[in-house]
Amino acid sequence: MTDRVRLEIDGSIATITNNNVDKHNAFDDEMDARLFEILGELAGRPDVRAVIWRGEGRSWSSGRDVSAIGTNRTELTHHELMVRGHRGIQQLWDIDAPVIVAIQGWAIGGMFQRALLCDIRIAADDARFMLPELGHGVIPDTGGMGVLYEMCGHGLVSDMVLTGRQLSAEEALHHGIVSRVVPPEALEATAREMAEQIVAAPAVGVKLARRVIAHLARPQQRTSMDDELIYQTFLNRSDDFAEFRAARDENREPRYRGS
What we know:
Blueprint: E1 5-10, E2 13-18, H1 29-43, E3 50-55, H2 78-89, E4 99-103, E5 106-108, H3 109-116, E6 120-124, E7 128-130, H4 144-152, H5 154-163, E8 167-168, H6 169-174, E9 180-182, H7 187-200, H8 203-236, H9 239-250
Parallel strand pairs: 2-3, 3-4, 4-6, 5-7, 6-9
Antiparallel strand pairs: 1-2, 7-8
Helix pairs in contact: 2-8, 3-4, 4-5, 4-8
C-alpha cells in the first residue's frame, strides 16, 4: 500500500492528501488504487461529515505521468482500464459527506477532472488549471468536460479542451469552477473552516441539499462519462492515434486522416 495518497480522520472531518511531492503529485496506477480504496472506505463511514482533499508541496496534482498516457502495462484491455477508473472515481458520489478540494499550483488533466466531480473547489491564488489531453493524442475521459459544460458553457470548455489553454485561479473563480480564491498561506485554514461549518449543520439537511444538487448535475455527468468511455476506447485503436505515436517516435510531423 502506497503512502503517496493518505487518509486521516479527525473527529467528523476526513482529509485525503496527495503526497507525491517530487512529481507535483502526479498520479500513477498504484496511487489510483489507493485513492479508490480510500473513497470506498469513506463511503462506508457515516460518522465522517466532511472531507478535505488537499496536496502536499507546490501543486495539488499535475495529473498523470505523460509516459503512461495511451499505454497499457496490465493484462486489462483499454476498455476495462477505463471502466475500472470510472467506477473508482464515481465512488465520490457514494460518500455522504461533501468533499472540499483545496487546490494550489497545478490541477491538470484527469486529476483536475476528478476535482470537478467533487462538491466544492477552492484555490490558492497561484492555482492553474489545464486539460492538455489532445496534445497527448487522447481526449479528457474523467467527466470533466461534462462538468465544465454545466458550469461554463460551450465556449470555455471548447477552448480548454481544443487548445489546452491554461486557466488562472481568478479566471476559474470568474467561471464558477472554484468558489473562493485565497492566498496560499490561507488555503488550508479556509478549507478546514468550511469543513467545520458543514459539520456544524444538521446532517440530514446537508444530505438532502446535496441530493437536490446531485439530481440536477449527475445525469449529464454520467452521460458524458459514458460517451468518453466509448470514444476513448475507439480513439486508442484509431489510425490517427497510431500515427500520433509513430510520428512522435520518429520525430516527424504527423499525417492525420481523421480516422
